[in-house]
Amino acid sequence: MHSIQANNYLVHFNVKGYEQLNLHLIENKYSNIFIIVDNNTNELCLPYFLPFLETDLTIEIIEFEAGEHNKNIETCVQIWNVLTELGADRKTLIINLGGGVVTDLGGFVASTFKRGIDFIHIPTTLLAMVDASVGGKNGVDLGNLKNQIGVINVPKMVLIDTQYLETVPQNEMRSGLAEMLKHGLIYDKLYWQQFLDLKSVDFADFDSLIYRSVEIKNEIVTQDPTEKNIRKSLNFGHTLGHAIESYFLENENKKTLLHGEAIAVGMILESYISWSNKLITQDDYKEIKSCLKSIYDTIIFDEKDIDPILDLLIHDKKNEYGSIQFALIEGIGKIKINQSVENELILKAFQDYKS
């Protein structure tokens, strides 16, 4: 597969990626390398990765505990301290080897340490490959609020090796699949239609589906790197999805949802809103709802859950002047950004989701 040109960096795939990584090390004369991992990728992915690394530089491993609840400024402070204690400088390279939590947090750590040092993303989950590692967004959560603190700063390269997916549980694969489905809904109807019957999907050629998903995200981000316009389309399903994810994250009586599980709910709800606003047909909505519910378990919402979820919407990063802004689909494969939605319609969407 050909490398994909992004904004000031390349996304490489499989074996070619390691060749480009080693060439990059030679050309840039780094002082040392720090590899950031969580405890899962330290055990399952690092032993596979290290033999590909051809360098005499000192390599240090920084591990933190896996999980969204550790994607916070406290973890960053711990890593900044370790970097300082072990002699990281302006010519240090950070390699983030892991899923979306590792790439988001590791990119933020690198972007802020000594006002910014080079970093490379090597995503190891489907979600990180098709979404988190591409586009230059790096950051951490503020309490239960998703990605409230962060920067837009691109890596030196992204290296996608689908062999890492052999270490990923099925529920995590489904979580990543949600972002691929989103890419089809907002940008490419033919791509969306490939997933309508998962039994017919050729998973032997899953690399090509991942490649197309990365292409779609990159094409959008390249047009609008700092999310002033069309990049907002990538937030389809995320306005309500992030609020749901945050609510379930903070509520000890709820089972924490994976990112893609929450976004799948968000896409159903926001598709209902799109239909109610006559942006898609009823058949489109039924197709979307049926497809997503066939892949993801229905999440149970009690009446007392809805108001706190709505309260969390005010923290959505797309909001402007106190107004909640949605990205809604305008026909499958097209998007309409900066859409205001009344709470009454959101409540109807939740009611319909339950049916």
Automatic annotation (TrEMBL):
Domain 3-dehydroquinate synthase N-terminal residues, every copy: 62-174
Obligatory cofactor(s): Zn(2+); NAD(+); Co(2+)
Enzyme class at the top of the EC tree: lyase
Enzyme Commission (EC) number: 4.2.3.4
Keywords: Cobalt, Lyase, Metal-binding, NAD, Nucleotide-binding, Zinc
Every 3-dehydroquinate synthase C-terminal domain range: 176-319
GO MF terms held by the record: 3-dehydroquinate synthase activity; metal ion binding; nucleotide binding
Gene Ontology biological process: aromatic amino acid family biosynthetic process; chorismate biosynthetic process
Cellular component GO terms, alphabetical: cytoplasm
InterPro entries hit by this protein: Dehydroquinate_synthase, DHQ_synth_AroB, DHQ_synth_fam, DHQS/DOIS_N, DHQS_C
Function statement: Catalyzes the conversion of 3-deoxy-D-arabino-heptulosonate 7-phosphate (DAHP) to dehydroquinate (DHQ).
NCBIfam families: aroB
Protein known as: 3-dehydroquinate synthase
Organism this protein belongs to: Flavobacterium segetis
